[in-house]
């Protein structure tokens, strides 16, 4: 019995040390797995069903979804996120991509992605980008063409166009379905005067160090990070 106990302990220890914890999407178990379009799915799983490997083509790994900007919201911004549902070659790879276009003096409203970190690459214009952490501290910086910035997973962030022309940046997310949760325009005053006031407050905060943002945060942000 004693030897069986030692054997059980050894097996348990080996199993415990070989369990892989998924910090993002779980690792894929094959080279690729282009998805079956959602409207043709017959099996529902945590992810998307794979195509028959015999029917996989190079076209499955190409998309033109980000070649054009989308429609603008009331803040003058367009956010387009392409996941494995639209770009089937992304299925099981733990990635999705995005494009954001912002009118002159436009703003990407505070939002977060519950399942992914976002890394952005600026291709046009000048931006002020920042995020709020769980200690109610604020981090922001000015970005120009060629700059890269990271918004950590599940933290509220924003992007403000501070140039004289339209600004564009592309995003990569470390999840094939990052999600997007945005502060609803109905939760705060969205008059032009109020939006201009918010933009001025964002610009006046230091771009080089973290600061407490309680003075300008909306009640909803305060409740989330209190």
Automatic annotation (TrEMBL):
Source domain of life: Eukaryota
Subcellular location(s) per record: Secreted, Extracellular space, Apoplast
GO terms, biological process: plasmodesmata-mediated intercellular transport; regulation of root development
One Gene Ontology MF term: manganese ion binding
Binding site for Mn(2+): 111, 113, 118, 157
Domain Cupin type-1 as annotated: residue spans: 67-189
Recorded GO CC terms: apoplast; plasmodesma
UniProt xrefs under SUPFAM superfamilies: RmlC-like cupins
Annotated Gene3D superfamilies: Jelly Rolls (2.60.120.10)
Signal peptide: 1-24
Binding site for oxalate: 113, 118
Keywords: Apoplast, Disulfide bond, Glycoprotein, Manganese, Metal-binding, Secreted, Signal
Pfam assignment, any one: Cupin_1
UniProt keyword Cytoplasm, yes or no: no
InterPro entries to which the protein is assigned, alphabetical: Cupin_1, Germin, Germin_Mn-BS, RmlC-like_jellyroll, RmlC_Cupin_sf
Disulphide bonds in the chain: 33-50
Entries under SMART domains matching the protein: Cupin_1
Keyword Manganese: yes
PANTHER family in UniProt: GERMIN-LIKE PROTEIN SUBFAMILY 3 MEMBER 3
Assigned protein family: Belongs to the germin family.
Protein name: Germin-like protein
Source lineage: Eukaryota, Viridiplantae, Streptophyta, Embryophyta, Tracheophyta
